[in-house]
């Protein structure tokens, strides 16, 4: 596997340099990843794109999005007008309740390549988000007897949500769903469970300034984004995060020098190796093997498999990033210092 440590990304351009993709009835679909959908935008490798994404909350409500949010105390003028139009899109059987935008074709991407997504900016489109749970929801489906829906507003500075009880939740926006089109052999693919093509990974640390790498399965990569969040704990244990409509800006680069089997990501401090499976034990095993492989390859074999396995046990944290969407996602936090140290 040619998956040496991802190279340092070039300086980030500003969001003002981006091609803008609005989310409309034509550019949005309910939650699945078709392999035959025509691209809603085609760009060259290296292009910066801003997606005016929407979170799905309120869209499927029988009373309509405006009435749904008004019932939570949101004035009609603060409800995104496109939500009502998107709600008219037919929802295919088997799709999730997410609203996703795409696909974005990145010209030159071919199966076997890697699509590099440099996340530049995430900004709120509205000043509020929603967290919702209830009977049967999350990892403790028997914990609640009635539905619990709470509106969380950003403070005037935009730095945090006021939860109540004097508790402030920092605003740390990210996109819960980032995916490329899956292989055709996968058949109909819901956007709910994450998998090798990314999808609903809900990895909260993929904030502005980080980079996601996804293996490519279809010509053009065919990138989808949605399920944007303003804050979330690892695991998303009550079923939802702070579900918040955001603008998402990223640069898309085709990498023909990399080969990956599973999604991978990085920050200035860590390389994040991911394992995904319906069985948490299997997801952990995949993440460990991905981390071991990375450590060996990034050091050109200076670290043996035994060295890397030991380091994974004593110096790498394995975190359950997503626990409630069918497949579980385990992320290995591999410090970059482990592959730069020499002695």
Please give the share of residues in helix.
10-25%
**Quick one: biggest sheet?**
9 strands, mixed
Number of helices: 5
Q: What percent strand?
A: 35-45%
Lay out the secondary structure.
Layout: E1 19-22, E2 28-31, E3 41-44, E4 47-52, H1 65-71, H2 82-86, E5 96-107, E6 114-124, E7 128-133, E8 148-153, E9 160-164, E10 167-170, E11 174-180, E12 198-199, E13 211-215, E14 223-231, E15 242-243, E16 246-255, E17 264-266, E18 270-277, H3 280-298, H4 305-314, E19 317-325, E20 327-335, H5 337-340
Parallel strand pairs: 1-4, 3-5
Antiparallel strand pairs: 2-5, 4-16, 5-14, 6-13, 6-16, 7-8, 9-10, 11-12, 11-14, 13-17, 14-15, 17-18, 18-20, 19-20
Helix pairs in contact: 3-4
Written overview of the protein:
With 343 residues, the protein is mainly beta. The protein has 2 domains: 15-255, Jelly Rolls, CATH 2.60.120.580; 269-340, Acetamidase/Formamidase-like domains (Endonuclease I-creI), CATH 3.10.28.20. The chain has helices at residues 65-71, 82-86, 280-298, 305-314, 337-340; strands spanning 19-22, 28-31, 41-44, 47-52, 96-107, 114-124, 128-133, 148-153, 160-164, 167-170, 174-180, 198-199, 211-215, 223-231, 242-243, 246-255, 264-266, 270-277, 317-325, 327-335. The strands form 4 sheets. It has a 9-stranded mixed sheet. Strands 2, 3, 5, 11, 12, 14 and 15 form a 7-stranded mixed sheet that branches. A two-stranded antiparallel sheet has the order 7-8. A hairpin with a 2-residue loop joins β9 and β10. α3 crosses α4. The longest helix has 19 residues, at 280-298. The chain is globular. The protein starts with 18 loop residues before the first strand and ends with a helix. Mean pLDDT is 95; it is low at 7-12. InterPro entries: FmdA_AmdA. GO terms for molecular function: hydrolase activity, acting on carbon-nitrogen (but not peptide) bonds, in linear amides. It holds the Pfam family FmdA_AmdA. This is Acetamidase/formamidase.
